[in-house]
Amino acid sequence: MRKVALDLGVRKTAYCEVQDGKVIQRATVTSVETLEAVLGPEQPSAQVAIEACREAWHVHDLLSSWGNQVVLVDTTRSRRLGIGQHGRKTDKIDAEVLALALERGGIPAAHVLSPHRRELRRRLNVRRALVESRAQLTTTSRGLAREQGVRLPKCPTTNFARHVSKLTLQPLEIIAPLLKQLETINAQLEVVDTRLAQLCETEPVVNLLMTAPGVGPIVAASFVSVIDDAKRFGSPHQVESYLGLVPSEDSSGGTRRLGAITKKGNSYLRSLLVQGAWAIITKADRHDPLRLWAEAVAERRTRKIAVIALARRLAGVLWAMWRDSAPYDPALLASASGRGTRKTARTLEAQAAQLTATVRKRVPSEATLQT
Predict the structure, then answer these.
(1) Alpha helix (H) ranges present in 48-159?
(2) Of 259, 245, 237, which Cα lies nearest the Cα of 310?
């Protein structure tokens, strides 16, 4: 099969085909559609490598419909392939490096979301943009009012425009255009939320995940849209690492050093999980095992560290619920936590015994010293 790579750009796309370690064809086009002459259904099928990006899903579907095998390359690992080495990074070079790596084999491929989950993620992205715009307009409105000595009443962002519009204070005329924008955004959010609810109705796993504390429809839907398929992960740690919630590590030189979380993966879902963790610590049932676990961590470390640790554990719990098609079960989770605590204690005891035995071997006995 032919080996081809594309470097997708905003204005142009670089095409490179290799054979036996040598470039046999190059091209630069303004759109992928114009590559039908070399990658279309009338041409021999090719294995095509492209880096994951905004338009990657569209390109993936187009090239696949032409009969090609598309490999989506994980951008977080692209440096392993040689991209950007020695300070040389251009579309032409990147396409060549990808093509040669594809021919050698062993490319770190990224997961391709199913079409339904792509639509779910698009709707969530639209909602996120609207919510962030509403928050920004609300903050700006409050700031402009304070400049004129007016402190606007506290209220949820969803009701801010309606509450403020009822006031008759003269200085508030300056923020009238912002209030109109807020009303428009609120109306659009209702439409988006309705569409999201319709999509979630076709996703039974969303309702399943919502049985966990701190998890509402947006958190559950976002988790589903990012993970896509629970079976592609073998353990909770893999999910936590995929979402960038595990500590960074530097174990060179024989010493293990852990740092802040890696923050790799989907930043929006990671922030939602952190918000869910805060909700568990502050609002969940006081006897809930997740809250008790987080409070124990907070006593040993800090509340902030406990929240991040809880967000990490929440991701693993949601994945396990999805994997087993089981709703949240506090008793089962408490039992698992107890087993984990006992296992940790046994491990520490074994390590202590081993250390004691090692010390005894190295330190001469009192009788030996006297002789």
Answers:
(1) 56-65, 91-104, 115-147
(2) 245
User: What are the backbone angles phi and psi of residue 17, rounded to the nearest 5°?
Assistant: -120, 135
Quick one: which of 151, 191, 183 has its CA closest to 167? Answer: 151
Q: How far lies 304's CA from each of 52, 249, 307, 318, in Å?
A: 33, 20, 5, 21
CA atoms of 323 and 254, how far apart (whole Å)? 36
Distance CA 197, CA 200 (A): 5
Q: For residue range 211-258, what is the model confidence (pLDDT) as tens digits?
A: 999 999 999 999 999 999 999 999 999 999 999 999 887 666 666 667
Q: At what angle do helices 330-362 and 289-300 cross, to 10 degrees?
A: 30
Query: Which of the pair, 44 or 10, is modelled with greater confidence?
Result: 44
Condensed to tens digits (0 to 9), the pLDDT of residues 138-156 reads 999 999 989 988 888 888 8
Q: Which of 37, 41, 189, 58 is nearest to 127 (CA)?
A: 189
* Element of type H or E holding 163: helix 160-165
The upper half-sphere exposure of residue 331, i.e. CA atoms within 13 Å in the direction of its Cβ, equals 0
CB 35 within 8 A of CB 29: yes
Asked if 49 and 107 count as a contact pair (C-beta separation under 8 A), the reply is yes
By CB neighbour count within 10 A (0-12 exposed, 13-18 middle, 19+ buried), where does 68 fall? buried
Q: Hey, which bits of 139-197 come out as E strands?
A: none
C-alpha to C-alpha distance for 284 and 277, rounded to whole angstroms: 10
Quote the DSSP letter at residue 263: -
> CA distances (Å), 218 to each of 182, 192, 230, 236, in order?
21, 12, 18, 21
Q: Can you read off the two tokens belonging to residue 202?
A: 């076709």
The alpha carbon dihedral of 224, 230, 236, 238 has a sign of: negative
In this prediction, residue 367 carries a pLDDT of 47
Element (H, E) at 258: strand 257-261
Q: Of 343, 360, 355, 280, which Cα lies nearest the Cα of 315?
A: 280
Separation of CA 332 from chain center: 27
CB 138 within 8 A of CB 131: no
